[in-house]
């Protein structure tokens, strides 16, 4: 595992964008796994700048997002489809027909999950997967206790995740308590994984995930078993790792 320490969140964003830009330059038809949340926003901003400067094109890129709330239509401003359009897709030359977000409005969510994994496989698998990490150790919406062998599946969100994410909704009660998420096996199938983390709230869990026991209780700890993981984290997120002299 390669851990890149940055001073600030902005630096984390530009280093991560650089890694994705290199991937795109080397393989213009890459299949990218993308993430939502507060952590990747600036990184997407950096990718837009690189596109505007003519350094990269997304015209042959295929993307798969990690997750979506169940019951939120794509037009809902807290849906992850809306986030991706707003944060990235509307500003670059990607073909939206080649962008995938799990359908949280599907009637049969288990079948939608299986079909999503089939689509990833049919696209040739994910070349580079972006991940954030939740304060409870989740990656995508794979909450503590998730089976390491899981494919894309519907989940009940934990009180911790609901508490963290409900702040983005007009009223906390509007936040869905279920989601459709790429599974841990789906994520581990990616050829390369890039995990980004920023801020003091991630310091304890980042240490547990990267250096603690590999256990379903800390879903991100499964990444210790992946052969090609790059972690980019700012000083605040690395506080415990530095304190314990892990690097
Ligand atoms: P955040 O979410 O980027 O909003 O902190 C990360 C996550 O929950 O995976």
Explain this structure to me?
With 247 residues, this protein is α/β, with parallel strands linked by helices. It has a single domain (2-243), classed as Rossmann fold (3-Layer(aba) Sandwich). Helix content is 32%, strand content 17%. The chain contains eight helices and ten strands. A seven-stranded parallel beta sheet has the order 1-10-9-6-2-3-5, covered by helices on one side. Strands 4-8-7 form a three-stranded antiparallel beta sheet. α1 (9-26) packs across α2. It is globular. The model has no long low-confidence stretch (mean pLDDT 98). It binds 2-phosphoglycolic acid. 2-phosphoglycolic acid (PGA) binds at residues 37-39, 132-134, 138.
Keywords:
247 residues; alpha/beta; Rossmann fold; three-stranded antiparallel beta sheet; 8 helices; binds 2-phosphoglycolic acid
Tell me what portion of residues adopts beta-strand conformation.
15-25%
The beta-strand count equals 10
Question: Could you say what the CATH architecture is?
Answer: 3-Layer(aba) Sandwich
CATH fold-level label:
Rossmann fold
Whole-number count of domains = 1
What's the CATH first level? Alpha Beta
Query: What's the number of helices?
Result: 8
Average pLDDT, all residues:
98
Strand order in the largest sheet = 1-10-9-6-2-3-5
What is the general shape?
globular
Helix content: 25-40%
User: How many angstroms separate the termini?
Assistant: 11 Å
Radius of gyration: 17 Å
Helix/strand structural class: alpha/beta
Poorly predicted regions are: none
Q: Could you say which small molecules are bound to this protein? A: 2-phosphoglycolic acid
The largest sheet, given as strand count, sense and whether it forms a barrel, is: 7 strands, parallel
Order of helices and strands: EHEHEEHEHEEHEHEHEH
């Amino acid at each position: 595992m390669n851990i890149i320490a940055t001073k600030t969140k902005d630096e984390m964003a530009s280093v991560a964008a650089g890694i994705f830009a290199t991937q795109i330059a080397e393989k213009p038809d890459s299949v990218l796994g993308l993430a939502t949340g507060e952590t990747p926003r600036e990184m997407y901003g950096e990718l837009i700048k690189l596109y505007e400067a003519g350094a990269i094109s997304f015209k042959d890129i295929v993307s798969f997002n990690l997750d979506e709330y169940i019951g939120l239509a794509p037009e809902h401003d807290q849906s992850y489809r809306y986030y991706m359009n707003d944060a990235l897709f509307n500003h670059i030359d990607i073909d939206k027909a080649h962008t995938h977000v799990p359908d949280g409005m599907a009637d049969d969510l288990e079948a939608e999950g299986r079909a999503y994994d089939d689509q990833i496989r049919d696209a040739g698998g994910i070349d580079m997967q972006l991940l954030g990490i939740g304060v409870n150790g989740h990656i995508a919406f794979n909450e503590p206790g998730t089976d390491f062998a899981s494919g894309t599946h519907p989940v009940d969100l934990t009180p911790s995740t609901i508490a963290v994410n409900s702040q983005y909704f007009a009223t906390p009660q509007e936040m869905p308590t279920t989601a459709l998420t790429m599974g841990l096996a789906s994520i581990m199938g990616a050829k390369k994984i890039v995990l980004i983390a920023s801020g003091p709230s991630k310091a304890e869990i980042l240490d547990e995930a990267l250096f603690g026991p590999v256990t379903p209780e800390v879903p991100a700890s499964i990444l210790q078993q992946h052969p090609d993981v790059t972690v980019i984290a700012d000083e605040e997120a690395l506080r415990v790792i530095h304190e314990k002299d892990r690097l």
